[in-house]
């Protein structure tokens, strides 16, 4: 009996003395863009840099007579309602310019 207890203690001691395995650190998250094509237009327009992008890439959007009606929508939603006036090229340019805002 003493031998079994001694044997168990001898076997378990090195296992118990080992430090726990290190958990690898999670990779640093890539910060999300401040604005996307789904961000409401009014949110983008409230930021001076965002407003500059909208005025440059989509001229007339912020002074459109229906602005109050669509300002809570994202640019992707507006494209479907624009009857082709908000093109894929315009959205691609706006997307790139909005992503550059930090």
**Alpha carbon gap, first and last residue:** 70 Å
Give a count of the beta strands, DSSP E runs of length 2 or more.
0
Helix count? 6
Q: Give the SSE string.
A: HHHHHH
What structural class should be given to the helix and strand makeup?
mainly alpha
Helix percent reads 40-55%
Average pLDDT metric: 84
Rg from Cα: 29 Å
Main beta-sheet annotation: none
The rough form would be described as elongated
Q: Low-confidence stretches at least 5 residues in length (pLDDT < 50)?
A: none
Oligomer: single chain
Per DSSP, what share of the residues sits in E-state strands of 2 or more residues? under 5%
Keywords: Signal
Signal peptide: 1-17
Please give a quick description of this structure:
With 102 residues, the protein is mostly helical. It has a domain at 41-99.
List the helices and strands and how they pair.
Elements: H1 2-17, H2 41-46, H3 48-57, H4 67-70, H5 75-81, H6 88-99
Helix pairs in contact: 3-6
């Amino acid at each position: 009996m003493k031998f079994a207890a001694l044997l168990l203690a001898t076997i378990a001691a090195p296992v118990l003395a080992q430090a726990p395995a290190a958990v690898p650190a999670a990779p640093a998250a890539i910060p999300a863009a401040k604005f996307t094509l789904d961000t409401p237009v009014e949110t983008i327009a409230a930021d001076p840099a965002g407003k500059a992008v909208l005025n440059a890439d989509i001229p007339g959007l912020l002074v459109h007579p229906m602005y109050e009606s669509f300002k809570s929508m994202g640019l992707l939603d507006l494209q479907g309602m624009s009857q082709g006036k908000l093109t894929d090229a315009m959205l691609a340019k706006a997307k790139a310019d909005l992503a550059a805002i930090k």
